[in-house]
Structures are given as C-alpha cells and as structure tokens.
TrEMBL record:
This is NADP-retinol dehydrogenase. It comes from the Eukaryota. Belongs to the short-chain dehydrogenases/reductases (SDR) family. The gene is rdh12. GO terms for molecular function: all-trans-retinol dehydrogenase (NADP+) activity. Its EC number is 1.1.1.300. Pathway: Cofactor metabolism; retinol metabolism. It holds the Pfam family adh_short. Keywords: Lipid metabolism, NADP, Oxidoreductase. It catalyses: all-trans-retinol + NADP(+) = all-trans-retinal + NADPH + H(+).
Length: 318
C-alpha cells in the first residue's frame, strides 16, 4: 500500500509537471534584460567566455556592437565559441586570449599584453569560476575555489583598473551566487588545509566575490567606474561537472533550471542598463536588486579580506 502511494504521488507530480510545463519554464527563466543599449566603440572583457553564461554574455554584447575579448583557459574551446558567435552575427568583433586564473603568472602575462595592445576597457565581467571540485591547489598554492573565483579575479581587476579609470564611464560585473548566503570567510583556514568540503569552499569563494565587489565599489567612489555583483540563478551548465550527484539532479530537474542564455541576463543587465550608470556596490538577481546575507554586508570582513588578498598576491592596492 505504501509503495502504491509513492508511485501514485510520483505519477501525479509528473502529470502536473506536464500540464504546467510552460508556466514552470516561464517562472524558472527569471528576469530578462530589456535594455536596447548599443555598445558601438566599447571594449568588453569577459573571463570564462567559452561556455555557459559567459559565452551567452559575449554573444549578446557582441550583438550590441562591442569589441568583445574572451579570456579563456582553453583557447581551442574559446575559438570554437567565438566562431559560433560570428556565425550568428557576422559583424561581431570577438577575439580570444589565453588566461588561466589558477596561475598568477598567466594573469600577469595576460594583463601585460592586454595593456600593450588594447587602449580602452569599458566593461569587465569577472565570470569564470570553478564549483565543487576535488581538493586541489592553484599554481601558487591557493585552494582552487578561493584561488580562481576570488584571488584570480582580484589580481586581474587590480592590473586592469587603471585602464578602466582612463576609459570611464566603465563597469565591473562580478558573477557571484546565491551560495554566498551559506559562506563564511575562514580567515584561520582560508585555503581549507585543516578541513575541506567542496560545497563550503565554493560558498566561501562566492561570498568573497560579494565582499570584493562591495569593497572595490567603495574604493572607486567618484571615479565613474561602478562595480556590482550578480547571482545568475541556478543554471543548467557544465559547472557541476565535478559533482556526479549535482549533475544527475540538474539533468532530472532541468525544467526548473535556467538555460545559459537565461542565466546570462543579469550579467548583461548590469553591463548595459542605462539606469545603472551610477549604481555601485549592489547585488543583483533576475535583473533586479537582490538580498545580500549579513556576512556579505560586513565592512570589517570586506576590508580584512581585501588586505589578506593583497598580501597573498604580493600587491599594494590602496
């Protein structure tokens, strides 16, 4: 009898899902960037633009007339993504450059070449990231989540911020996550050497993204360079490749998840929306202001993380 009830319940759920599929998809899709702003003459840099929401963001901004530079660890996949964008928009200005955020030498080499060859940067989208990977370290010995998701982008932004100030008005968009709500900055064990949980390490790095965006916005006040963080939503992408369980769950419940195009909407919104020209230090989701966890609003934590990040990267950023 109990087994029958379970089967009947599952059957009922499946029927409801089929009946209301269109409504479920519409709700799951979330907010849409409605701005028609053109970006002719503007230069955009997007990290991790060879796949997922990064690729969709690149496609949208290229279609608006921007020169889009796709910074990718895997250049071959980046070239494939660029080719698909140009196939869709023959006039698109897209180019691929190699960048490994898990290696500070690669980041510095990328920035050095970028500054030598590109004379303006109006939009920087710190999009690349890793999620729930096994315990590994970057080339410089940082735990992979905090190393790539936070420290890599911290260094990249530091190296390019001067150019952005000279190109102002300019915008920095930091892709974070709702997961920041479950994160804590473990200053006593930032690199998870004492204990490691891939989920918690990911959440810590996403909280670091929010804190970085808020502190950078504070430091860039009156420079005409704005900084905002975004939660793209729960997106059905290959970001879950390191977790078999999550991959299975995302496959089963794909109807309830955003497509990469839908997940890119808030990044695009923060990059182009006219009404955000002077908005900085905020967090967005579904193209609207979003809740930030208390630990993400702590000025003390943000400043402490900033100082430690500078120390780890051996840089001075006043």
């Amino acid at each position: 009898m109990f087994l029958f009830l379970i089967i009947a319940s599952l059957g009922l759920v499946m029927i409801l899902v089929v009946l209301f599929a269109s409504h479920i998809r519409q709700y799951a899709a979330g907010g849409v960037c409605k701005s028609t702003e053109r970006l002719d003459g503007k230069t955009v840099l997007i990290t991790g633009a060879n796949t997922g929401i990064g690729k969709e963001t690149a496609l949208d901004l290229a279609a608006r007339g921007a020169r889009v530079i796709m910074a990718c660890r895997d250049v071959e996949k980046g070239e494939e993504a660029a080719a698909s964008i140009q196939a869709a928009y023959p006039e698109a200005q897209v180019e691929v450059r190699e960048l490994d955020l898990a290696d500070t030498c690669s980041i510095r080499a990328f920035a050095q070449k970028f500054l030598r060859e590109v004379n303006q940067l109006h939009i920087l989208i710190n999009n690349a990231g890793v999620m729930m990977c096994p315990y590994t370290k970057t080339t410089d010995g940082f735990e992979m989540h905090i190393g790539v998701n936070h420290l890599g982008h911290f260094l990249l932004t530091y190296l390019l911020i001067g150019l952005m100030k000279r190109s102002a008005p300019a915008r920095v968009v930091v892709v974070s996550s709702l997961a920041h709500n479950f994160g804590w900055i473990r200053f006593h064990d930032l690199h998870s050497q004492g204990s490691y949980n891939s989920g918690l390490a990911y959440c810590q790095s996403k909280l670091a993204n929010v804190l970085f965006a808020r502190e950078l916005a504070r430091r860039l006040k009156d420079t005409n360079v704005t900084v905002n963080s975004v939660h793209p939503g729960t997106v059905n992408s290959d970001l879950t490749r390191h977790s078999t369980l999550m991959t299975i769950m995302f496959t089963v419940f794909s109807m309830f998840l955003k497509t990469p195009r839908e997940g890119a909407q808030t990044s695009i919104y923060c990059a182009v929306a006219e009404e955000l020209h002077s908005v900085s230090g905020k967090h967005f989701s579904d193209c609207a202001p979003a809740f930030v966890a208390p630990q993400g609003r702590s000025e003390e934590t943000a400043r402490r993380l900033w100082d430690i990040s500078c120390e780890l990267l051996a840089i001075e950023w006043d």
